[in-house]
């Protein structure tokens, strides 16, 4: 439903998005993950027709986003990062306005608005003014606005930002339901969100896609050497014996109080836990812990998007302040992201 | 068409949710109330030419001061506000063309401008009950209002696409309207007859006086309509070009 081919967006000489290629199929929820300023919003703005791409092409629901922009836009539901609304409008009124903008027939508008109010759990506030709503309801109203014409493609820019945990769970549930028959591209920098909602992940960094796959695949691919940790009661001599187990690359003792802790690196695909257990039994060691070290998506993300200091901040980019990087302190990143958002819009 | 009307309706209604609109309405009605008082006073003198009373509604100094200052304020929010709040992103990613957006907003603003003028029809009705009034010149005067309001608002619409700061948009519009208005006034300073003839095309003051006297010159109508179209066209270009730049 979404096909992106070598999409590039440049601002002057600075490429915000470079040669990005991916696709999203119907019934699939794809997470667009990256540090602030990585090019997520720019890519989404290109796909929704708000920004024209500098190079490359993209099709949404079969319509080219440049030559057939109107049809592409008609098939897209877009929730912008700002989730901006008209403060003076009431929720129902706003949704009816969005429906009219989408060209829905007057006779269908009321039904469509009621349906979407129900879907997005807005009944309680449907006749309140947007300016008097809480952040969570505003976000839901903005999401509802992007759904009112039942688009086959949904592009959601940070749909859960600024919500409390209960609201986040509700919005995620809604998105999962929506994703059953639609193509959903959802950007986030919240990692658990990807695990909770997405079928597939695209990790974007500094305008380029650096990894792609299901959360599981990414973890496996980037896990590197599998590691097993073991702990034995008391002092254990001849830990080196572990190194003799087939499939074990190395066994190192790590600090532990009242116990002997060992970090065992094994070869790809080797199943060494059972052998460690047997060895412990035969040697009379008391096994307290035996666990496989699991790689979190966080580790994957940090590994992919972490840059060495010098590499991360080339002088001209650091000076322009347009591209906040993963290495920055969160506050700084947030501040300069606000800056770049202002520049972009 | 449905989408265009949705934008018109939203723009028109949005005015009534802003305190600024009520300040403008109040100032406008006070100003026109004073002018009406002056008209009634004028009619009080025994040998006043009664036919010349009502045209005064469209040919006084305050009329121009109001249009030059207030029209930019009416138009300033059209695009600047949406750009600032971010709602422009929703509007431009909806399946609506830039032309529909510009025209919809322009017509919505023109609607508000005419809503301002609507109560002045009461003056016509009151005067009609006292003295005979020829409705021809009155109609022409109001036609002049629509044309002039449209022209000035198109300039304001264009100015509003240039910035996300509403005050800057209003000042830009004012800065464009002043030369547009004063070019025609230079007519009185020019002696060369051919140049003078040319300047009469731009003399908005004289045009309004003509309208108020009931003279609807097609050259004037074409001038207003084409100038309005030109500035709206600029607004569409500006809105499209804004997409190119961050």
Poorly predicted sequence stretches spanning 5 or more consecutive residues of chain B: none
Total domain count of chain B: 1
- Mean pLDDT metric of chain B: 88
Distance, first to last CA of chain B: 30 Å
The CATH top-level class label of the largest domain in chain A: Alpha Beta
Report the largest inter-chain contact. A-B, 30 and 27 residues
Q: Determine the CATH topology of the largest domain in chain A.
A: Rossmann fold
Through-space gap between termini of chain A:
27 Å
Q: Strand tally of chain A, please? A: 14
| Unreliable residue stretches of chain A | 308-345
| Estimated helix fraction of chain B | over 70%
Report the total helices of chain B. 13
- How would you name the CATH homologous superfamily of the largest domain in chain A? P-loop containing nucleotide triphosphate hydrolases
Shape of chain B: globular
Q: Label the structural class of chain B.
A: mainly alpha
SSE topology string of chain B: HHHHHHHHHHHHH
Helix-strand sequence of chain A:
EEEHEEHEHHHEHEHEEHEEEHEHHHH
SS field, number of helical segments of chain A: 13
């Amino acid at each position: 439903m979404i096909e992106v081919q070598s999409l590039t967006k440049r601002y002057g000489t600075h490429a915000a998005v470079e040669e990005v290629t991916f696709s999203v199929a119907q019934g699939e929820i794809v997470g667009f993950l990256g540090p602030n300023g990585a090019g997520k919003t720019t890519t989404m703005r290109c796909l929704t027709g708000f920004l024209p791409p500098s190079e490359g092409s993209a099709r949404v629901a079969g319509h080219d986003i440049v030559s057939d922009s109107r049809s592409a836009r008609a098939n897209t539901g877009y929730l912008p990062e700002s989730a901006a609304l008209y403060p003076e409008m009431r929720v129902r009124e706003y949704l009816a306005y969005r429906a009219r903008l989408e060209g829905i027939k007057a006779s269908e508008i009321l039904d469509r608005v009621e349906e979407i109010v129900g879907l997005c759990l807005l009944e309680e506030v449907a006749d309140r003014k947007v300016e008097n709503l809480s952040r969570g309801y505003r976000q839901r109203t903005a999401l509802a606005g992007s759904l009112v014409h039942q688009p086959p493609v949904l592009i959601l820019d940070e749909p859960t930002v600024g919500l409390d945990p209960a609201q986040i769970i509700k919005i995620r549930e809604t998105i999962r339901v929506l994703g059953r028959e639609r193509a959903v591209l959802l950007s986030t920098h919240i990692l658990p969100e990807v695990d909770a909602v997405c079928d597939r992940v695209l990790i974007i960094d500094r305008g380029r896609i650096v990894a792609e796959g299901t959360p599981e695949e990414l973890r496996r691919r980037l896990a590197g050497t599998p590691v097993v940790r073991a702990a034995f009661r008391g002092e254990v001599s001849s830990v080196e014996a572990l190194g003799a187990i087939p499939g074990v690359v190395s066994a190192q003792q790590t600090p532990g109080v009242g116990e002997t802790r060992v970090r065992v690196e094994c070869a790809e695909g080797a199943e060494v836990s059972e052998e460690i257990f047997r060895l412990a039994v035969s040697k009379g060691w008391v096994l307290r812990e035996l666990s496989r070290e699991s790689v979190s998506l966080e580790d994957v993300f940090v590994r992919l998007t972490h840059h060495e200091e010098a590499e991360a901040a080339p002088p001209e980019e650091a000076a322009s302040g347009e591209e906040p990087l993963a290495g920055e302190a969160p506050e700084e990143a947030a501040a300069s992201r606000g800056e770049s958002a202002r520049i972009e819009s | 068409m449905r989408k265009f009307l949705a934008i018109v309706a939203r723009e028109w209604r949005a005015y009534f949710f802003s305190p600024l609109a009520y300040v403008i309405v109040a100032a406008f009605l006070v100003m026109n109330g004073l002018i009406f008082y002056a008209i009634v006073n004028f009619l009080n003198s025994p040998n006043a030419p009664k036919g010349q009373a009502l045209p005064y509604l469209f040919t006084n100094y305050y009329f121009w001061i109001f249009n030059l200052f207030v029209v930019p304020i009416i138009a300033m929010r059209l695009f600047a506000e949406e750009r600032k709040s971010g709602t422009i992103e929703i509007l431009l990613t909806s399946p609506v063309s830039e032309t529909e957006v510009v025209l919809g907003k322009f017509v919505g603003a023109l609607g508000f401008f005419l809503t301002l003028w609507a109560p002045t029809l009461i003056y016509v009705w009151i005067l009609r009950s006292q003295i005979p009034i020829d409705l021809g010149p009155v109609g022409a005067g109001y036609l002049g209002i629509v044309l002039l309001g449209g022209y000035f608002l198109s300039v304001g619409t264009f100015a509003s696409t240039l910035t996300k700061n509403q005050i800057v948009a209003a000042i830009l519009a004012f800065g464009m309207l002043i030369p547009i208005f004063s070019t025609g006034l230079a007519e009185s300073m020019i002696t060369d007859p051919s140049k003078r003839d040319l300047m009469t095309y731009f003399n908005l003051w004289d045009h309004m006086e003509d309208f108020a006297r009931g003279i609807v010159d097609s050259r004037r109508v074409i001038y207003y309509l084409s100038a309005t179209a030109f500035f709206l066209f600029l607004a569409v270009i500006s809105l499209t070009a804004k997409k190119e730049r961050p």
